[in-house]
Amino acid sequence: MIINLANVLSEHELESINLQLAAGEFVSGATTAGWYARLVKNNTQLSSQAPAQENLEAMVKTALNRHELFQMAALPKTLSPILFSRYGPGMHYGLHVDNAIMGESLPLRSDLAFTLFLSSPASYGGGELVIETHQGEQAIKLDINQMVLYPASTLHRVEPIRTGVRLAAIGWVQSLVRDASYREILFDLDTVRRAMFGKEGKTPEFDLLTKTHANLLRQWAEL
C-alpha cells in the first residue's frame, strides 16, 4: 500500500526546517547506506553531528505523531532517526532495497519507509522517487510538505536531478502490525468507521466496526 499524505508540517515548522537546512552542514549520504546501496547512492545529507539535527528530527516526529492518516496507515511502534537529504544537479540514488534491520543499540525492523518533500516540485528538475510495484513502476514527485509512505521491502530509486535542489526528510517505521495485508485491512476498517461516525455519529453499526477493528488489532499487534 502506497499512501500520499498532505500537510504534514505546520507552516511554521516547514519554514523553520528549511531555514535551518539552508545553514546546515551536509556530508556524503553514502555514510548511512548499506554496503551495496552506497555504491549507487550519490547525494548529501545533514550531518548527524549538526547542531540543528536533534531539533529538526523532533519537529518531524512531532508532526507525524499528530498526523491522523499517518497513524492510521502506519500503526507505528518505532520511528527511525530522520535523515535530511539534499540532491543537487547530477545527484541520484540508484535502484536498491532498504536494510531490513536498522540501528545497532536499538534495532528497528523497517516495515515502511517515507519521504517528506521539503522543496517545491517546480524548483528542481528530475528527482522522482520511483517505486517498483507489481503493477509496474510508480514515479512520485509530490508538492512541498507532502509525504509518501510506502513498503520498505520494495526496490526503489531516486532519478537524477537535472536542475535545482531537492530537499527531503527520510525515515522508516517499525509497525505494530508486521504483515502489510493486515495493516491494509485495519486501515480500511478504520477509514470506514471514521467516515460512518462523521455522518451518523455513534451508532450500533459504528460500535460493531470499532469492536472488530480493536479485536483484529489485538490479535495482530506485536508489542
Describe it:
This protein is α+β, with helices and mostly antiparallel strands. The protein folds into two domains: 3-67 and 78-175, Jelly Rolls, CATH 2.60.120.620; 180-220. Helix content is 32%, strand content 31%. It contains five helices and 17 strands. The protein has helices spanning 11-22, 53-66, 68-74, 180-200, 204-220, and strands at residues 3-5, 26-28, 41-42, 44-46, 76-79, 83-87, 92-96, 101-102, 108-109, 112-117, 124-126, 129-133, 136-140, 147-151, 156-158, 161-164, 166-175. Strands 1, 2, 4, 5, 6, 10, 14 and 17 form an eight-stranded antiparallel beta sheet that branches. A hairpin with a 2-residue loop joins strand 12 (129-133) and strand 13 (136-140). Helix 4 runs antiparallel to helix 5 (204-220). The two termini are 22 Å apart. The model has no long low-confidence stretch (mean pLDDT 96).
Q: Quick recap of the structure?
A:
With 223 residues, the protein is an alpha+beta fold.
CATH superfamily of the largest domain: q2cbj1_9rhob like domain
Low-confidence stretches: none
Please report the distance between the alpha carbons of the first and last residues. 22 Å
Give the total of domains: 2
- Per the CATH scheme, the topology name of the largest domain is Jelly Rolls
Structural class: alpha+beta
Topology:
Blueprint: E1 3-5, H1 11-22, E2 26-28, E3 41-42, E4 44-46, H2 53-66, H3 68-74, E5 76-79, E6 83-87, E7 92-96, E8 101-102, E9 108-109, E10 112-117, E11 124-126, E12 129-133, E13 136-140, E14 147-151, E15 156-158, E16 161-164, E17 166-175, H4 180-200, H5 204-220
Antiparallel strand pairs: 1-14, 2-4, 3-7, 4-6, 5-17, 6-17, 7-15, 8-9, 10-14, 10-17, 11-16, 12-13, 12-15
Helix pairs in contact: 4-5
